[in-house]
Amino acid sequence: RKERQAFYDLIDSTNDETWKTPTACTEWEVRDVVGHLVDVTEGYIERFTLARAKQPFPEALGLPGMAKLLDSGAKRFRSSSRTQLITRLKESSDKLFKILDALSPDQYTTEMIPHVYMGPLPTMIYPAFQLIDFSVHAWDMRAGLGELKPLSEDAANTLIPYMFIVLQVTVDEEAAKGFDANWGVRISGDAGGSWKLALKDGKLTYEEGSVAGMPVVFNFDANDWVLTAYQRFPGGAVIGDRQLAYRIRRLFFKI
């Protein structure tokens, strides 16, 4: 809720001119970021509704084409006025939060809601997606508006474990072909730690543990870890094999 309010404060402060400012999400203006939030929020509501009604779902679309489809979904709202789109987002978000707030502990971990691109996921993932959208995309807009500051500490720390999943599901099949590698990730701060990652036969695995002996180690703070996973910039100070680090950075497609 804190990140959502910060997002709202930012878009409420725009005017008809800044509404069309390019953002750090390179294909989108501020209005498209808001359109994206409307698109995914209403999509989540639809999926919860279908699941609760025990209705059939289309096949998951998969992640490789996700960026292109999300781009179309965000830009389809360009004909809406600034006021119309902001109002629509807030109304849709209130509906989704009402659904999420009503989840029982059992539903939170065991109920499966099919995601448009990823297929069935436990309901606990959807609040995380909302946190990602409100925090990372607020960063995108602030960067476009000339206000470069990190994600909030709470948001960045909370998102640390989810970024390993992001990397797992965005391994580029062609880039990974014939390439097996091991590397370490070290994240500073109270919620940080060290993890060993391994790519083998195109599949990425990870486990928490010492990175001693790894051929290359990437060192992040929580903010840079999240924004690097979402390819906003290539963060992480490298210790070790720089050629290997260069190739690892190019293993993942953008979503």
Short synopsis of the structure:
The protein is an alpha+beta fold and 255 residues long. It contains ten helices and seven strands.
Task: Report what the structure shows.
- This protein is an alpha+beta fold and 255 residues long.
- The chain folds into two domains: 2-149, dinb family like domain (Four Helix Bundle (Hemerythrin (Met), subunit A)), CATH 1.20.120.450; 161-249, SCP2 sterol-binding domain (Nonspecific Lipid-transfer Protein, Chain A), CATH 3.30.1050.
- 50% of the residues lie in helices and 15% in strands.
- It contains ten helices and seven strands.
- It has helices at residues 2-12, 30-52, 66-75, 82-101, 105-110, 125-144, 153-169, 173-176, 222-229, 242-249, and strands at 112-115, 119-122, 181-187, 193-200, 203-208, 216-220, 237-240.
- It has a five-stranded mixed sheet.
- A hairpin with a 3-residue loop joins strand 1 (112-115) and strand 2 (119-122).
- Helix 1 (2-12) runs parallel beside helix 6.
- It is globular, with a radius of gyration of 19 Å.
- The mean pLDDT is 94.
Count of spatially separate domains = 2
Number of helices: 10
User: What about the largest sheet?
Assistant: 5 strands, mixed
So what's the overall shape? globular
Can you lay out the helices and strands and say which pair or pack?
Blueprint: H1 2-12, H2 30-52, H3 66-75, H4 82-101, H5 105-110, E1 112-115, E2 119-122, H6 125-144, H7 153-169, H8 173-176, E3 181-187, E4 193-200, E5 203-208, E6 216-220, H9 222-229, E7 237-240, H10 242-249
Parallel strand pairs: 3-6
Antiparallel strand pairs: 1-2, 3-4, 4-5, 6-7
